[in-house]
Amino acid sequence: MKSNENEILATRVSDMCRRCVKQNVPCFLGFMSCEKQKTVKEQADHFPDVFTVFFGGVDEAERKTAGIFPRELYHDFGNDAQNEKEYSDTAELSFICIKGSGYRRFSHRDILGSLISGGIKKETIGEIVVSEDGYRAYAVLLKSVCASVVIELEKVANDKVSVKEVEKEDFPQIKREFEDLSVTVSSVRLDGIVSASLNLSREKTKKLVSSGMVFVNYSECTQPDKELHENDVFSVRGYGKYILEANLGKTGKGRTRLIIKKYK
């Protein structure tokens, strides 16, 4: 996320936190990326009278809404999953199924593009899951836009579709797809791991890092010598997102072998 976007979001969150405390009511932001969720959490943590809960609607969701709750009226269970479960009704999320005629298979991009071209803001759209056969798709939406989507969405990628609201239990399980990479590096420094994972020169990698194009655990990182650990997530703008799944230790030549998962 660009620094000016980050500043705008941080200012908005601060205003919401003050309003939350003053009016003693929860305040909500729309669906956002993991990167923005981290910014929201870090900014809200400056206000001790509130706590933040993220809602994806379904298991394994990455795009989530944020709710800022006043501690005077709501109990913070101290556990993200439990907070999400306890306060899920306040997020007001809906679930839809989009069914095609069988004329063509849909992609995630087809569904998202059709929703946005129909006048729906991206902030009102959560996770989208396309069925294995490609003829149906499911989406999490803010309840405020669900009715209009059900009525007005008639075509996706030139195929006629029908849309209906469904129960959360009918939403398919999200299955993330990864490409497994096995790389060897001289150390677990960020620049070396990015260079090996993306098959880029060390010089180009350092330029990407120094220019703010590399993120570690959803925060911009400009330190090429930062050490990464198992389960750290790193991403590079224009190249994708990766997880350092396992450090398998040293090879016979003293290098370190890593298993990297690349999001497809």
Could you please describe the fold and organization of this structure?
The mean pLDDT is 95. By secondary structure, the chain is an alpha+beta fold. It is globular and about 60 Å long. It is built from seven helices and 14 strands. The chain has three domains: 88 residues, Ribosomal Protein S8, Chain: A, domain 1 (2-Layer Sandwich); 78 residues, RRM (RNA recognition motif) domain (Alpha-Beta Plaits), CATH 3.30.70.330; 86 residues, Structural Genomics Hypothetical 15.5 Kd Protein In mrcA-pckA Intergenic Region, Chain A, CATH 3.10.290.10. The strands form three sheets. A six-stranded antiparallel sheet has the order 9-14-13-12-10-11. A five-stranded antiparallel sheet has the order 5-6-4-8-7. A three-stranded antiparallel sheet has the order 1-3-2. Helices cover 29% and strands 33% of the residues.
